[in-house]
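The methods section describes the discrete structure representation at length, but only in general terms. Each protein is reduced to its one-letter sequence and a matching series of backbone shape codes. I believe one specimen quoted in the main text would settle the matter. An entry of this sort, consisting of the sequence and the corresponding backbone structure tokens, reads as follows.
***
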Amino acid sequence: MTPQGPAGLPGSLQDPGRCLVMGILNVTPDSFSDGGRYADPQAALEHGLALHRSGADIVDVGGESTRPGAQRVSSRQELARVLDVVAGLAQEGVPVSIDTMRSETAEEAVRAGAVLVNDVSGGLADPRMAGTVAGLDVPYVVMHWRAHSTRMGEWAQYGPDVVGDVVAELQIAVQGALFAGVQPDRIIVDPGLGFAKESVHNWALLAGMDRLLALGHPLLIGASRKRFLGELLGTPDGPRPVELREDATAAVSVLAAAAGAWCVRVHDVAATRDAVRVVAATLAAGHDPH
């Protein structure tokens, strides 16, 4: 069954017949996987175009690292990093999302051509975010979040039902967005894998995607290269290196697509694009009466 996407996206993304693929473009010097590689605007633009050519339906541009322990940057610095890249990609016809916790950055990025706001704080970091997004009338990713990167490890405490805890907190965040004027058909939810969560919590959330989908909003899953994959695949010497986690990332993409996720957010677009197409073909065959 094709997952229902949010309203307000470009026509080409309204009904693709499969799980969408969001390509990650970190315009930062300190992101955990590719920090510094695309800090130069021209390099970032070229990589964003390459992601799109590889099959990214949406390119997610972020100017502030959210890796564990990362320090916040100023609003001015974040805007300086992302705006030209967003505008350049939009001018080339690439659907762009802006990965930000700041309403000012979200507003400026949408004016520059972004078609979606991806807020990893779910509206908690900036009380003006949800109202700003409501005025922009674009889809809004509400992610489960408890604290900024410098402190989120302290908040990785849950009851015996982590999925129930996350669902309940996402419901509160969604209600906040609705109260601020965001239209319900423009809200996307994300369980925030790796954000204030240990490996056991992430695996439980992946196993409980049906309960996340029961929230009634499109589901975004972002597991790409994250620590819990490295820990699973590691040796007594330590976790699997970041750059060697792509096969595991693709496996999560398959699980998410098969469960009914609307989109997966990844670094290696080509592998995941192939994976979600396989899932779509299999699901379609299962529904074919012939």
Observations:
- The first strand starts at residue 20 and ends at 26.
- The chain has a mean pLDDT of 92.
